[in-house]
Each structure stands twice: as structure tokens, then as C-alpha cells.
Amino acid sequence: MSEHIVPVRIYIGVFLALMALTALTTAVAFIDLGRWNTVAALAIAVTKMFLVVLFFMHLKYSSGLTQLVLLAGFFWLAIMVTLTLSDELTRWWTQTSGSWSALLPFLLRLF
Amino acid sequence: MTEIMQTGLGLLAAIQEGIPIRPPAASSIAEGVDRLHFFLTGITLFFTAVIFAIIFYFMVKYRRRSEDERPADIEGSLPLEVVWTVIPTLLVAVVFVWASSLYFENSRPPSASMEIFVIGKQWMWHLQHPEGPREINELHVPVNVPVKLTMTSEDVIHDFYIPAFRVKKDAVPGRYTSLWFQATKLGTYHLFCAQYCGADHAEMIGWVYVMTPSDYAAWLSGGARGEPMAQAGEKLFNRLGCATCHLPDGTGKGPSLVGLYGKQEKLRSGEMKLVDETLIRQAIVTPNSFLLPNYAPVMPTFQGLINEEQVLQLIAYVKSLGPEERKANSK
Amino acid sequence: MADLAAHGVHPPGFAHQFEDMEQQRDAGSLGMWVFLVTEIMFFGGLFASYIIYRALDLRAFETGSRLLDIRFGAANTAVLIGSSLTMALAIRSAQVGKPKSQIIFYLIMTMILGALFLGLKFTFEWRHDYVEHLVPGFGFAYKGPFAHGVELFFCFYFFMTGLHALHMIVGLGILTVLTIMASRGRFTEQYYAPLEISGLYWHFVDIVWIFLFPLLYLIGGRYVLGGN
Amino acid sequence: MSTAVIDALPEASAQPSRVNYLNASYGIRSWLLTTDHKRIALLYLSSITLMFFVGGAFAVLMRLHLIQPQGALVEPDTYNKLFTLHGVIMIFFFLIPSIPATLGNFLVPMMVGARDLAFPRLNLLSWYIYAIGAIFTLYATISGGVDTGWTFYPPYSSTFSHTQVVPVALGVFITGFSSILTGLNFVVTIHKMRAPGLTWFRLPLFIWAIYATSIIMILGTPVVAITIFLLGLERLLHVGIFDPKIGGDPVLFQHLFWFYSHPAVYIMILPGLGVMSELVTCFSRKRIFGYSFVAFSSMAIAVISFLVWGHHMFVTGQSVYAGLIFSVLSFLVAIPSAVKVFNWTATLYKGSISYQAPMLYALGFIGLFTMGGLTGLFLASLATDVHLNGTYFIVAHFHYIMVGGAVMAYLGGIHFWWPKITGRMYPDGWARFAALVIFVGFNLTFFPQFIIGYLGMPRRYAVYPPEFQVLNVMSSAGASILGVGYLIPLIYLIWSMRYGPAAGPNPWQAKGLEWETPSPPPTENFEEIPVVTEEAYDYAAPHTGVARG
Question: Alpha-carbon distance D422 to D12, whole Å?
């Protein structure tokens, strides 16, 4: 698994792609896309992360176990964020209406 | 030595009187909470007894009789596993629904509640009635009237706990929390701080007096107990110079506060915000933490200049300017 | 350890508790990945808090973000990506049995880029923030709208970039050790595990920055020039 | 599990003259620089025993103080420091490392048939990190103590307390890394170092439990580390993200803190559940009832434990919506725990049950864990939690799990593997007596606290209204019995190290790879790595001990 040797041109290609994405994400930040600015910036960051993880860190050539380990990390991070937000974004709930329908728009903000 | 003797005698007397196993139940929710509590106690005793009985039975029946015993193999049993997975699941589902619906009801004050304000401070409780009276570590309330407490803290997190009413809620610095109860029995009950708050945490205790409505009215009017909160707030409003900008007709540097309480206000960002106690507090303590469409962010902060009690007075004043009932979407 | 000889002759770097070299390499690599998961959760506590506060006070965080100089953020991103490339090439050089001078060259390049990142961060960016009174706890004096929320934002900014810089410094230490090991000719086609697992760490630190850059610098509505 | 590895060993191998890990080398250096997992386990054993008795001494002082309503012994300030240090030391420096770092360190490599853990030097480093953290905490104890409660809630801890918060926080922060690295070492060892033929479903259930524990250590501990780190920074810089003065939310600290600290409860109890499976099978000579259900319930507990932390915060002003979510998830975690109890009980059915000391601890555990678990339902259920949260009911509940559960299992495990660790037997009569004293003392101490809590007495009170005195005196009386109960094993176990009769490789006729090597084991555990051909707990097969062949 870890013995896989990645050709130099793939490393260079990944490097160039990362630099291009950095330029792109910086440029996009100056264009008004409303809330899509955040989406774009984070989507590009996730793409860059995948490039680094898959090629520089050889995850593409690693065992399923390694991939599972990494997945677990992100899954638990998601648990932490989601459940904490489920408190922090809904504290006003029973102080105003307390009806289930009033919750919906805020729950959508969680995802 | 005599001290020990006295302690011993006191203990003996207490044991003779019987050790209490149930706190007084003196609020509208106490009986309901206790029913659930006793149901859970029943479950606990039942399952503990069953497990212990089975273990003792097996211990005796299957005790090792010779060193060479080799009992036959039992791999397990899927039906049994299913049974003892499903039964606890159903049981906890019932408890969850029961407990949660009770809690959900208990967490929403009736709209006609009487309001009292609570400020936790190392190590005492400040309580203020809108009509004026202030109390320290004592709370007088009328029987059979729903009471809503709005609480905050001057310093660390405290917790307002009346065991006889089965209610408890943290008083958190920087925000308002609330709880409500309706006392059902006349009497005097413990008030505790139930969130550790420093050296004299255990001394941050007091008494709740549940009175007949007429006694309560007499208590409210008895003696010079300070002016009503809204009135004190109005004085403060003028003294701090708030009135120079927040003109009633809306022509000042700040928005008019008349009829504001309970409204949904539109912010510059387009977001709608409900004007409630929390928002007014935020506006006073950390102004410019939200921007309004037609006003410049010029309000100075009053953090450190006024205390939580004064903030509450200002809020009471703003509320007195607004509609009594919250009308959603009145804009 | 006395009976190490009983296991017969082993390649250099082999540890007695393993059966063979492959088991050892697998274990090392898995260990590093598990460690990186703990790092995800370590930074995760900060990221989670950031996400929550940003959701609660969006305008303040956007205002804070616009007070940062995007040029430093972008330049540092490029520098770190470059260092990841040289790190990957250093490992590859060992894998294919290139002479040790090449491994050392790439390692030193990685260190230079890492040092460049820290140099930009500390001597330009943080100093700039200090002069502008944007450091909470050290004469924070921003007085515009959302002053409290902006102070919170800068708490996050310094905690997050500071923690990241701390990881960079640790990484530079590791790279120094690797360079010394390489100069002693310790790495061969069979034995380059220390390079490989240190590389994983270095790339991880790069990934943290890949997320810090948009979170801190980019998603504050750069297109709004001044005002709200 | 049977192997043909050590057939050649002569009977005399039970005598201490044989070379083993204890006498392979001598001198203090050979211990402080050892990379042998068994010696490191003993380093942990001695250091956590020390911490246990320090923490226990604080508990005894607290119970003495509470004999009188106005406080019999110390000033409120001192009392606050006593319960804080009792909590910090018992949780971070005793319970969390207890079974994993001692029994786990000793047994994991042997149970999986390996010569050592995957990273022996990292293992030694973990102990040093633990020791440094402990030294910081003990330093803070001597130099004035700390009074925030082990939960370190801001803004009290960040702004208002005048005690040694930073050194203790640093101690906890540092020790966290010991826990992380231990968990990492176990996970890699269990994945990569299993002996040939030892598939996942042939592993002892102790290994499954340790694996689940390690997952929690790896995923949870870093979060509490960063949280404590942020708290320390906030205290030093007078500004930070939990500071309500700039709009920070002190309740967020509680979220992050409990994200780790609730699962941490399972770091303490899961290894105990693993020990239980070993004890119950051995002393009833039965295969475990429903192996895969017991194994997967450990994993289920590890995962669900991360979803329930909000039940510590039902009265903090957390939203009602979050309260409902956390409540339903909290109920879920009761189910795998119940499944375990039922399976152990079923394992006894038609067994051949003997009552040596480890089994007495095990049976005591089942009873106390059942009660501790069921009283947890009161706290998962929202309406009753509002009344019971922050009272002695909580104290009683978690002591039933932590002391009645984790400590009983720890002592049971120590008694079970003591002959393997030292090569010597302890006096079984004394051990049974101690088990009984501890069981009685424990119930006397903590059962009254359920009632005190329901009556409404808040925890962490240095003085209290006089009507709670009778029950408090009962509790204090029980505590003195419990304290004596813990001293008895300390005495006879130390005695046995020198004077106990030689134990032989397998005094209990137990199954498992660790029993197929001499006692004490040689430095590399096995003469030759074993090949496993049988399922775990194959007690029905004719016994294949050392003397076979």
C-alpha cells in the first residue's frame, strides 16, 4: 500500500491545480454572490483538501482502513458541530412561539 | 464532647420522627414530576430485584460441585437477544414521551403570568417585583398564580432551585433565562443555588413564602419598598441621556421606543428580530451589535456604567411604552 | 531485548515487537493517521466554536474578516502548498533510492518555505494587527460597529492561526531531525517510514491552513468595500 | 484458545528463579527506561494507586466534614478545594487511566499474541506525560489548591476564582495526551499485531472493550484538551471566546467540555465491562452468552456516548429543542448497557460457578452497575432531571457507575490477573472479606445520597440545612467502612508480592492467550508467537493447560 510510487508529473500537476484553486478562491471572494460566496470558498477548500489527501498523502493508494479512520474524524467533527448548533440556534424557540413549525427555518440553517 | 452528645441526641430525635423520603410538593407540576419519579423508581427496583434474584438463584443452583466440571456449551440465543433489546427500547420510549411532554409543558409559562426578575450575584439572590419591592434571598409569591421569573447573573453562573416546586434553571451572565411555577400550597420553602459558584455557594440560599393573594397584596403595599421598576427605569432613561436621542416621535438620532416591545424589527441586513428582553439588553450593553436601516451606529456602550438591575429597570420602562401583548408581525 | 538475536538478522530500523518490515510500516502509517484524527478533533473544537459564533453574529464576523489583509493570507497559502510539494518530493526521492543529497535538498526547501510562512505571519501580519490595535488582550481598541463581535472574531483569528503556527514550528523541528537522519544516510528504499509519516503530519498542517484561509480571510464579503 | 507453544516448559517454571519480565534486569534505570508494556503497566499501577489514595483521602475528609450541617471540619473554601481535587484526581488521574493503562497495557499485547504494543517507546512516553500532569496537579494541591469543581465552568474558573486554576488545567491538559497516545497505541496494536488465526471474532471481549474505549480516547480527548487550553488562555489574557462581556457564551464551554467528558464516563466504565466478560466466563466456566451482541454493544456504547452530552445541560438554558434531542439519544445508550447485563446473567445459566474473590467483585459489579444504570434513566428523562440535576442524586448515580462499577471491575480485574502479573497468589479469604466490606460500605455511603438528592439538597454544599443531617451521617458512616475496605487489598496484595505462594501459569484454569504463558511472563510474552485455532472462551473443551503434552 504505502509502497506505491507516485510519478513526479502527478505531484507537479496537483501542485499547479492547488495554486490555480487558490487564485480562483481569492478572486471569487471579490465577486458578490450573496451566500454563495461562502459555499464557493468552502467547496474550493474541500477540493483542495481532497487533492492533498489523495495524492500528497497517498490516501488514494492506501487501505480502506486508513480511509475509514479519516472518515471517522470528520464524522465526529460533524456530530460536535451539529448537536451544539441544535442548541445555540434554537434557544429563542420556547420563549416565543414554541410551535414545531417555527423551528423549521432554523433547523434548515443547521444543514 | 457535649457537642457530639447534642448532635447524637438531635439525630436520635430526627430518626424517631422518621426520615423524610419525599420533599414537599407545592407547585402545579410537582405531582406530575413525582408520578414519573416514582414510576422510574419502580422500574429501577423491579429490574434490580429481578437481576439479583436470577443471579442468586443461578449462584446456588449452578455452584461448582467438583473441580472437573465442564458445563456444556451454550452459544447464545437470537430470540432472547431480541426480547431483551426490544423490551428496554419500548420501555425507554414510553418514559421519553412521558417525560418530554411533561417537560415541554413545564417549560412554557402561561401568558397571564406574573413577572418577577432575578439577579444572581456572588453569593445572594436579588429579586425584584415590577411593582417595586426588592428582596434579597427571599421571595414572596401569591398562591395559585402563575409566576414567571426572568433571570440573569452579575458574575458567574448560578442556578435558581426550589425543590418543593421541582423547578430549576441556571442564571447565566450575559443573557436572560426564565422559568415559571404556580405555587399550590401555602408555606415556606427552600430556595437554593444549585450551580457551584464559589466560596459561599452553600450560603446562597433563602426562602420562598407562598401567601394568600390578600396577604400578598398587603405585603406588596406594606412600607416604602422602592418605586415600581418602570418608573425607576424612566428616571434612569432621562438621567443617562437616553431621552435626548430616542425621541418618542422617531425624529431623534435613535429610533423611537414607543410600542417597540414585542415587535419584529427589520435590521439593515434584512433579517427580522423580535424585540424582547434579550434584544433590549443587547442594545443597551453592546449597542451597534446590530444595525437598523435608518439610523447611524452612534450609540455609546453602557457596559460597566449600569448594573444588571438597572438594565432590568430600563427594560421594564421600554416594556411599559409598548403594547402589553406581543403582536407578531405588527409591522 | 536480550533475545533480539533469536529473531535473526533484520534490516536497519527494524523494531523487535514486529514480525516483519511491512507490519512495522503499516503500523507506523496507521498510527500517524490515527494521530491526525486526534488533530482534526483538536482543531475541530476551535472550528466548531467559530462556526457557531459566526452563525450567531454573522455581520460582526464579516466585519472582522475584512480587517485582515487578504494578500498575506493568499501568499501564505501559496507558500504552504509549495512546501507540501517539496515534502512529497523528498519522500519520493527516498522511495526510488535517489542519492541522499536530493532528499536533503527537498527537506531544506520544505523548511525554507515553512520558515517563510512563519516569517510572513509573525513579522508582517501579526505586527500589523498589533499596530492597528486588533489583538485582544493586548490593547484591543477597535471602536467601529459590532465592536464586541469583532473582538471575538480576533480571538478566534489569533487562537486559530497561533495554534497552526505552533504546529508549523513543531513541523520544522521534525524536519530538522529528518535532515540530520538523511545526512547520515539512514533512509533507503526499504526504510523511509520516518519521512513518510512526518510527511503526513506536514500535509495535515497544510490542510488546516487550506481551511483557515477561506474561513478567516475570504468569506467576509470582500466585495463590499467599506461600510455595511 | 489453545496453542502448542509452551508445551516444553517444565513444571518448575512457576518458580521465580526462572527469567521473567520482573527479574530480567535490575535497578531503578531498568524500570524508568523500560519499554516493556508489562513494566509500564506496573509503573501506572503504582502511580494511579498513589493518586487513588490521595483522592480517597479528600473524599474521607469531605464525608467527615458533612457529619454536621454547619460543617464539622474545615472552612467552606477548603471544602470547595477538597471536592474539586477529589474530582480532578479521581477522574483524570485514577479512573480514566485505571483499567486501560494498567490491565490494558499489561494484557492487550498478551491477549492478541504479540511481543509488545506497536509503539513501546510511545507507551513509556505516555506514562511520563501522565506523571508530569500528575505532578502539576499535586503541585497545585500543595500550593493552595483549586476550587472550581472538576468541571472548570467559566466564567467562575476564567475570571472569578482566586485559586490555582492554570496549573491544574495544565495538568489535565497534559494528562490528556497520555490518554490519547495510549488509545492510539491500543488501536494500532489491535489492528495490526494480532497473532495468526486470531480473527476479530476470536478476540477476548476485554479487547473489544479496550478498542471501543480507545476510540473514545482518540476522538474525545483532543476536544477537552483544546477546551481547557482556551480556558487557560482566557484566564491569562483576560479575554476569550467564553467571556460574556464581549458576547461569548459560557454555555459553549459546557458543550465542548461534555462532548468529551460524557464519553469519558464510558472510558471509565467500558474497560470494566470488558473485565466483567472475562471474569464471568472464567468463574462459571462458560462461553459468553451471545458473544457478538456483547462485542457490538461495546462499539454501540462508544458511538452513542458521543451523542448524549447535552443531558448534563438540561437546566443551563440550553434550548428546549436540543433538550428533547439529547434526551432521546441518552435513553438509547441504556439499551446496549442493558444487553450486556442480560448476557452476563445468561452466561451463568447452567454454568459451574465458583466464588473466588474476583467473581465476588464481578457479581457485586453487576448489581451496582444495574442500579447505577437504571438511575441514569431519571437523569435522561427531562422532567425529573430538572429536579434532580445538580443535587446529591447525581452524585449517588455517578458513584454507582464509577465506584460501584468501574472501581469494582478494576479490583476484580486486579485480583484476577494478579497471579499473572506477580506470579504469586494472595490470601483468597481476605480478598473475599474485602469484597464484602467494600460492597456493604459502598451501598451505605451512596444509597442515602439518592434520597438526599431527591429531597433537594444540592451537591458541592459545604454547609446544609439541618433536616438533611440524618442521611448525611449515614452516608459518612458508610464512607468510613468503604475506606477501610479499600485498605485491606492494599495490605494483602503488597504482602503477597513477597510471601504469597507461587501461582503457576493458570491458577483459575482460565482460557485466553495470557494464561498460556508462564507467570510472570517472560519479557517478550511468548517463546514463540502463538497460532490461534479456537474461538474465545472455549471452556467446554477439555482443559489444555501448561502441563499438557
Answer: 16
